[in-house]
Structures are given as C-alpha cells and as structure tokens.
Design a protein that fits this description.
Shape: globular
Strand content: 5-15%
Helix content: 40-55%
Radius of gyration: 17 Å
Number of helices: 8
Bound molecules: adenosine-5'-diphosphate, zinc ion
CATH topology: Rossmann fold
Number of strands: 6
CATH architecture: 3-Layer(aba) Sandwich
CATH class: Alpha Beta
Length: 216
C-alpha cells in the first residue's frame, strides 16, 4: 500500500524478483482491460482519468478472479489492492475460504511534495512495462526504453491535477485500510519511509520481510 507515486510498482517488481511470488497490480490489470477496448475497460477509464477510485463492486469482482487465477505455491504480492476497507474485508473472506494467510501488509509512506514530483516525471515502456523517472531514473538514451528501444509513454492520469485528486482519495478511502489491518492484527504491518532512494527502500522492505515470524 501507499499513495500514488510512493514506489509501489517499482518495489513490487524488485521484490517479486527477489522472493519469487507472482505480482498482481490492480492498476496494471485495469489498464490492460482499457487497452482491450472492452465496455468494462471504458467504464474503468472514466474513474481512473478523474483520479477517483473504481467502485468496490467492480474492483472486488475483477481482483477476486485475478487472485484465484494467479495464486500458486509461491504466493502473491498484491500491489494497489485493497484500497478501501470494503475491499480489504472481501479479500479477507476470500483468503479465509481458500485457507491462505496474509503474511504482511507493507505500507510505503511518502510526502505529498515527493509524490507529485514522482508522478509528473513517471514514464513507462509500452512494450515491457519497465518504469522510469525522467529525473530520478532516466533511460540511458533520451526517452526510449533501455531494453526495447521503443518510445516511453506517460499515463493519462499522471498530471498534477489528477494526482491531487488521487491523493485525496488515498487519504479518505485508503488510509483507513492501514488502521483496519492494525486492528485485525493478523498480518504483520510493515511501515516504510518511501522518501528514501529506491535501493534504500528495497533494503528496508527486504529486511522487514526477512524478519517475519515463520509459520504464520
Ligand atoms: P498508482 O500506482 O499511481 O497508485 P494505480 O496504477 O495503482 O496508481 O491505479 C490507477 C488508478 O486505477 C487509480 O487512480 C484508481 O482509479 C484505479 N484503481 C487501481 N486500484 C484500485 C483499487 N484497488 N480500488 C479502486 N480503484 C483502483
Ligand atoms: P506507485 O506504483 O506507488 O504509483 P511507482 O513505483 O510507479 O509508484 O513510482 C512512481 C515514479 O517515481 C516512477 O517514475 C518511479 O521511477 C519513481 N520512483 C519510484 N521510487 C522512487 C524513489 N525511491 N526515489 C525516486 N524516484 C522513485
Ligand atoms: Zn521496454
């Protein structure tokens, strides 16, 4: 979990390489649905481009299926889901009936100023999905992907106006999810300073995950 631009995607990609679990990003799943040109994708686009959360009913339906289809022996890293208490409750029910534990909830904290700077500089590769930042993690050559050589693209919702809206949604609807998990006490709650450099953030998360009590 974490506000837009905190580094969830960047860190999730590194962690799945290190720990070997599958990576499920709700934002990526929704963007793929949009790219397919389906009616569902069009519906999602309206909310996303306004910086609003997609309604719980839709999210839970799409993500429940994604979790079911991708859950394997190495487990799952959920990125960007759940984002409301209702989504967290639905996930809890699904995991309980599948007899799968939630080991840890990682919250990446980042200040508003940092978040806005990161979001407006964010670019990604339309081929391989690799993330860049034009100032902090620029591609080697101009604005093409280091690996694919194709032009990087910017997300429709990565403007300053929309990010302010997304930050407000985070504060109102997603922050309460942190308290929900703190109260439940079943999963380890790991809070990370996301203002630090990418490698430092990775190290902090990895150390915390390696310290998880075994056999939860
Ligand atoms: P970021 O990485 O900047 O936090 P995401 O790619 O995770 O953004 O999400 C982009 C948009 O997709 C969100 O602003 C929201 O509209 C929608 N979205 C993604 N995940 C969820 C979710 N779990 N619940 C509701 N809306 C979501
Ligand atoms: P989120 O998934 O939380 O929205 P991203 O991982 O997409 O965040 O990161 C947002 C932007 O900030 C990207 O352009 C990424 O390259 C950059 N970024 C991520 N983590 C850091 C960091 N620790 N320091 C500087 N820039 C970062
Ligand atoms: Zn690429």
């Amino acid at each position: 979990m974490g506000p837009p631009g905190a580094g969830k995607g960047t860190q999730a990609k590194r962690l799945v390489e290190a720990f070997g679990m599958a990576h499920l990003s709700s934002g990526d799943i929704f963007r793929a649905e949009r790219a397919s040109g389906s009616a569902l994708g069009e519906k999602l686009a309206g909310y996303m481009d306004a910086g609003e959360l997609v309604p719980d009913e839709l999210v839970v339906e799409i993500m429940a299926k994604a979790v079911q289809d991708n859950d394997g022996p190495t487990g799952l890293m959920l990125d960007g889901f759940p984002r409301t208490v209702a989504q967290a409750e639905a996930l809890d029910e699904q995991l309980a009936s599948a007899k799968r534990p939630l080991d840890a909830v990682v919250v990446i904290r980042a200040s508003d100023a940092v978040v806005v700077e990161r979001i407006t500089g964010r670019r990604s590769c339309p081929e391989c999905g690799k993330l860049y930042h034009m100032t902090f993690m620029p591609p080697a050559d101009d604005s093409v992907c280091d690996d694919c050589g194709v032009a990087l693209t910017q997300r429709e919702d990565d403007t300053e106006d929309v990010v302010r809206q997304r930050l407000a949604a985070y504060r109102q609807q997603t922050e309460p999810v942190v308290d929900y998990y703190r109260r439940r006490g079943e999963a380890e709650l790991i809070e990370i300073d996301g203002d630090k450099a990418p490698d430092d953030v990775s190290q902090d998360i990895t150390a915390a995950l390696n310290n998880l009590p075994l056999g939860r």
